[in-house]
Design a protein that fits this description.
- The chain contains four helices and no strands.
- The protein is mainly α and 90 residues long.
- The protein has a domain of 34 residues.
- The chain is rod-shaped and about 130 Å long.
- It starts with a helix and ends in an 11-residue tail after the last helix.
- 0% of the residues are buried.
Length: 90
Amino acid sequence: MIWLMSTPVETPTFDPAQVTPGPVGFFVTIGLFLAVGLIAMGLMNRMSRLQARYAVREQLEAEAAAGAAANEVPTAEAAGDEPKPDTASR
């Protein structure tokens, strides 16, 4: 135990080359930043296209439903009229 206390401890030296990324790290970081930015822009473009397609599809379906409803022949029951009795068979 006394031996451990008597031994001087060396202070570690600070070498900036071991703790800084340098130019290679800088370029890798910029490359990652650009790659993530391009991926995000592509995702935003894809999402806006999908939303536009969805809106057009909904509009076409609504127009088709309105056209189908307009082409239906109204029956007497649907119009609220009571059917007239058949007087020709008497």
